[in-house]
């Protein structure tokens, strides 16, 4: 793997900043300063020092992906492209997405190989909130704020848990929910005969989508974000 990629994957910042710092002599491979960002390192055997500190691959891996539409959240699928294909180059075994987004949904996905974290973040007991930016095909009436706050019947055993709707304009809003029922956002708006035309997850708990990630791009979670995840463990 390239030296700049390795340093970025171990959570040390963006590729472009890392590249320029490598050129200035911030990286050592096996005790020798390497100024070529494209230098190939062996991530299993090489000793890589960044600004005086030995880098280690974490026991577990945590990434934030900006999911594009058109990909599904599955390990593999004979018919559909999967978001995990984007991670193939990393050659990390056992990566999966924390929860799922529909094929046509965009936005924040946490991808990890830490099963315990995923279990806890998805546990109904932890009430991890998820916020979506939604556009719909017709007017969003202000009365929906109260309906969503009180819970609605979407054909499940129980009504939906209190959800917070913040209307942006006639056709768009942010919706925060604490559950993850199948097609939940689409079904909640569908209950009011509104068809979701665009859906993007912008946050999970206190982790916000990094808007500098283009669709299909991912990055390791930063240290502050990993601290937030500790709460869910
Ligand atoms: N709700 C939906 O309807 N779809 C998603 O992908 C996520 C939440």
Layout: helices, strands, pairs:
Layout: H1 3-9, H2 15-23, E1 27-29, E2 32-33, E3 48-50, E4 53-54, E5 62-67, E6 96-97, E7 106-112, H3 115-122, E8 130-136, H4 143-150, E9 164-169, E10 172-177, H5 184-190, E11 196-204, E12 207-208, E13 218-220, H6 223-230
Parallel strand pairs: 7-11
Antiparallel strand pairs: 1-2, 1-3, 3-4, 5-7, 5-13, 6-7, 8-10, 8-11, 9-10, 11-12
Bound molecules: uracil (URA).
Uracil (URA) binds next to helix 5.
The number of helical runs is: 6
Bound small molecules, by name, code or SMILES, are: uracil
What spatial form do the alpha-carbon principal axes imply?
elongated
Distance between the termini: 31 Å
Task: Please provide the ordered H/E string of secondary-structure elements.
Answer: HHEEEEEEEHEHEEHEEEH
Annotation, overall tally of beta strands: 13
Radius of gyration: 20 Å
> What percentage of the residues does DSSP assign to strands (E)?
15-25%
Residue-averaged pLDDT:
93
**Helical residue percent?**
10-25%
Could you name the ranges where pLDDT drops below 50 across 5 or more consecutive residues? none
Structural class: alpha+beta
Largest sheet: 9 strands, mixed
């Amino acid at each position: 793997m390239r030296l700049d990629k390795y340093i970025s994957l171990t959570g040390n910042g963006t590729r472009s900043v890392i590249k320029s710092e490598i050129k200035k002599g911030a990286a050592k491979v096996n005790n020798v300063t390497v100024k070529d960002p494209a230098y190939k390192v062996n991530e299993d055997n090489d000793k890589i020092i960044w600004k005086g500190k030995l880098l280690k691959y974490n026991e577990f891996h945590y990434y934030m992906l900006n999911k594009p539409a058109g990909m599904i959240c599955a390990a593999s699928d004979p018919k559909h492209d999967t978001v995990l294909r984007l991670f193939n180059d990393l050659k990390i075994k056992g990566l999966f997405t924390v929860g799922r987004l529909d094929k046509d949904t965009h936005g924040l996905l946490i991808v990890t190989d830490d099963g315990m974290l995923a279990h806890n973040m998805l546990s109904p007991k932890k009430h991890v909130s998820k916020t979506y930016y939604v556009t719909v095909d017709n007017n969003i009436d202000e009365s929906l704020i109260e309906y969503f706050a009180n819970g609605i019947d979407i054909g499940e055993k129980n009504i939906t848990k209190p959800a917070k709707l913040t209307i942006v304009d006639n056709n768009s809003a942010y919706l925060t929910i604490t559950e993850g029922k199948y097609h939940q956002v689409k079904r909640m708006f569908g209950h009011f005969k509104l068809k979701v035309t665009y859906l993007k997850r912008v946050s999970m708990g206190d982790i916000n989508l990094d808007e500098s990630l283009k669709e299909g791009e991912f990055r390791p979670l930063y240290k502050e974000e990993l601290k937030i995840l500790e709460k869910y463990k």
